[in-house]
Amino acid sequence: MTRTYLDDILLWHRQRAQRDSRVLTELMDVARSSAPPRGFGKAIQDTPHLSVIAEIKRRSPSKGDLNEGLKPDVLARAYQTGGASCLSVLTDENYFGGSVTDLQTARAACDVPVLRKDFTVDPRDVCDARIMGADCVLLIAAALSQDELARCMEVARFVDIDVLVEVHDEVELDRALLVDAMIIGVNQRDLVTFAVDHDRAVRMGSLMPSHVVRVAESGVRGRDDALSLRSAGYDAVLVGEHLVTSSDPAAALTDLCVE
């Protein structure tokens, strides 16, 4: 089987989790008593047009630095001005150059809910997301066993944080639905080749039940993609590189807010 960048990233995160001696039940109590979340899923549902989850992303493993001078607070305000329904902030340091500080700085600079974009491998990661101020946590189906996925969902419900479950195909979609995921993202980028498969996202949009908040992730390159994904039934698009590398992120974002 071909080894992917995800394998290396997950190995690092799992090794870190194995060294973590913190008690889950204690973390859950701290997380549950944190300041109320802003309501990530609700913000998408309340948006009359295609919602944009605008990402703050410094670098990627495949392309290196995307925006060397990125200021999370400035970009967060630009995204809100452009009409973002939510933000996504990378907090992985080793591979994406992100940080918890980036998330907290961005969230403090705007009024929209924020997703912690990271590689969740342990229920304590879910608690950490809530404690640091995130309104939603990412669970990647390809990174978790079904038991792990179910346990992380259970903890997320207890600590009152929304969950975006990321899938890549029909099998993973079924897995997400088995744990009653309410926000499901289809990653258009292949984990092995990095190629964007727009047709797969369009196909899978029709497979999701109507009660699910449907998000298309990665590879959204402009208004035509946004229109196509909206027609395929998506409620939101998660967009990073296209916005982070734009000379006018607010205008680029507004162009994606299609009816």
The strand count comes to 10
Count of DSSP H/I helices? 12
Radius of gyration, rounded? 17 Å
Tell me what portion of residues adopts beta-strand conformation.
15-25%
CATH architecture: Alpha-Beta Barrel
> Percentage of helical residues?
40-55%
Shape: globular
Q: Strand pairing plus helix content: what structural class?
A: alpha/beta
Detailed description of the structure:
The longest helix is centred in the N-terminal third of the chain and has 15 residues. The protein is 42% helix and 17% strand. It has an eight-stranded parallel β-barrel, surrounded by seven helices. The model has no long low-confidence stretch (mean pLDDT 93). α7 links the parallel β6 and β7. It has twelve helices and ten strands. It has a single domain, classed as Aldolase class I (TIM Barrel, Alpha-Beta Barrel).
Based on the model shown, name its key terms.
two-stranded antiparallel ribbon, 12 helices, 8-stranded parallel beta barrel, 259 residues, alpha/beta, TIM Barrel
Topology:
Blueprint: H1 5-19, H2 24-32, H3 40-45, E1 51-56, E2 59-60, E3 64-65, H4 72-82, E4 86-90, H5 100-108, E5 114-117, H6 123-132, E6 136-140, H7 146-159, E7 162-167, H8 170-178, E8 183-187, H9 198-205, E9 213-217, H10 223-231, E10 236-239, H11 241-244, H12 249-254
Parallel strand pairs: 1-4, 1-10, 4-5, 5-6, 6-7, 7-8, 8-9, 9-10
Antiparallel strand pairs: 2-3
Summarize the structure.
The chain is an alpha/beta fold and 259 residues long. The chain has 12 helices and 10 strands.
